[in-house]
Design brief:
This protein is an all-beta fold. Helix content is 0%, strand content 46%.
Length: 261
Amino acid sequence: MTIATSQIDRLGANPFVVEGPIVAGSGIPGPNFALGSVSGGTKESEWVYCQLVLASQTTLQPGQWFQWTKDYVASLLTTAAAVVGQRCGVFSGAAQPPTLTGGPVGAITLAAGTYYIWLQRNGQAPALVTTATAALVVAETTATAGLATAPASPTATTKAIQGVNFAAANQTFTATTVNGSAVLTALGSVTPEGGPFIGAAISGTGIPGSTTISSITYSPSGVVQSITMSANATANGTGITVTATGVLEATLMRPYLSKVN
């Protein structure tokens, strides 16, 4: 995940602010930028400004995959709805209001309506991946909205995602656990760009099964200070090895849907 350099709400682009819902007479302005506008950040990162129309309440999670039309109308990516030739990217995360670092605070639940969001198309980013193999050379759509996969070989009838590479099949880091607490501290091998990321499944000594990362706390300078889990630790531990899967670091190179597998 990379950090946006333009972060002033209303005065400049902030890729971590979701605008809306836009309702006539509500007093909420929008869109604030021309559709298709591009915002740049560190390490070659780029975000594209798109319209998002939701028919029902939807939770946007960091790493979800979207596609968008030539008119920059975005939709969650699925195999059934994917259109070969359309560009795609990921939702980096929501901050309401913006954090000091501009980094992703987490998921955001939106009511039905019209919104304007920034979707990342270039640079390091979190990406939801149901399966990742050691090869990490194939990316494709799935039937689940916003979820991609990286199998060892193409899956018939899925749509291939060209222009994305995954750093690894999983991520390991070290942390300290306290029995009865959901907070991981004294983190090692953790960065805002490389993860781990919100929504990732994690495992390790003293961490219950099916536990995920609920939130991440950053310092004002952008250093990851702690991670909050979806369940409390069952043991005290220092320097334990934690493995994260499901939301991986991806390098986006302006991906697009290239073909039907």
